[in-house]
Amino acid sequence: MSLRIAFCASRAPIAQAALAGLTRRYGDHAEQGADVIVALGGDGFMLQTLHRTQENAAPVYGMNRGTVGFLMNEYSEHGLVERLQSAEEAVINPLGMRAICADGSEHRALAINEVSLLRQGPQAAKLQISVDSKVRMPELICDGALLATPAGSTAYNYSAHGPILPIGADVLALTAVAAFRPRRWRGALLPKAAEVRFDVLEADKRPVMAEADSNAVRDVVQVHIRSEPSIAHRVLFDPGHGLEERLIREQFV
C-alpha cells in the first residue's frame, strides 16, 4: 500500500531545494488525511511542525536540512517510502506553561523541549520553587531555571549541565542556569506528574521572562508548569537511530 506523504520545509534554501526534489519524486498530499508528515529543516523547524500539527493523527518524520538535527533523520531522497514503513515511533508529551505577568495578564503555551525562566536585566533572578504546592526552595539566585522533558533534556537543559533523561523515563529535569545561591545546587529529578511553580521574588527590581519552546513572555511573576499527557506527539526515526538510542549515545561522547 502506498503512503500518503505530506511534505513541509523551513525557509532555508537547502530545505526548499529538498522539498522540490522530494515532491517531484513522491508527490505531496495535504496534511489532513496524510499517513505521515515529512518535515525538512533543523530541530527548530521540527518543533514548529510538531506544535502546528498536534491535532493531526499523522506522525512526523524529520529529515535534517538545518544546522541542528537531534530530532531529525539523515537526509536522502532515495528509499523514503521504505524508510517510513520501517521507522520506529517515539511518543512525546509536552509541558503546559501558565505564566502570570506583573500586569495581571495570563499566558499559556506548550513546550516539547523545556520551559525556561531567564533574567531580563543585568541583575540575577530570585526564584522560589514549589513542587505540588510545597515550597522546596525558598530562594534560588541565578540567571534562570528550566524544566525539561526527556526529549528536550539534550537541548538547553544539557547545556546548563542538566542530566540527559531516557525517553521512556517518567521524570522531568529541573535545572538551574548559572546558580549563584545555593552555588552548588545542580537541580532535581521530578516525577512526570509533578506540578512545578516558580514565584519571581523582587520582580520589580529583578524582572524575569518565561519561554516555552521559544514562545516568550516578559515580566512574569509566577509560572506554573505541568506535563500534558492528553497531548501526544508521534515522532518517527530510522531503525537503530531512534530517540532512545540517541539519548543513550549522547551520554558517552
From TrEMBL:
The active site is at D43 (proton acceptor). One of its GO terms (molecular function) is NAD binding. Gene3D superfamilies: Probable inorganic polyphosphate/atp-NAD kinase, domain 1, Probable inorganic polyphosphate/atp-NAD kinase, domain 2. InterPro entries: ATP-NAD_kinase_N, ATP-NAD_kinase_PpnK-typ_C, NAD/diacylglycerol_kinase_sf, NADK. One of its GO terms (cellular component) is cytoplasm. It is found in: Cytoplasm. It is an enzyme of class 2 (transferase). Its cofactor is a divalent metal cation. The keyword Chloroplast does not apply. NAD(+) binds at D43, G44, N113, E114, D143, A151, T154, A155, Y156, N157, Y158, S159, A178, N215. It catalyses: NAD(+) + ATP = ADP + NADP(+) + H(+). Keywords: ATP-binding, Cytoplasm, Kinase, NAD, NADP, Nucleotide-binding, Transferase. Its EC number is 2.7.1.23. Involved in the regulation of the intracellular balance of NAD and NADP, and is a key enzyme in the biosynthesis of NADP. Catalyzes specifically the phosphorylation on 2'-hydroxyl of the adenosine moiety of NAD to yield NADP. This is NAD kinase. It comes from Tropicibacter naphthalenivorans.
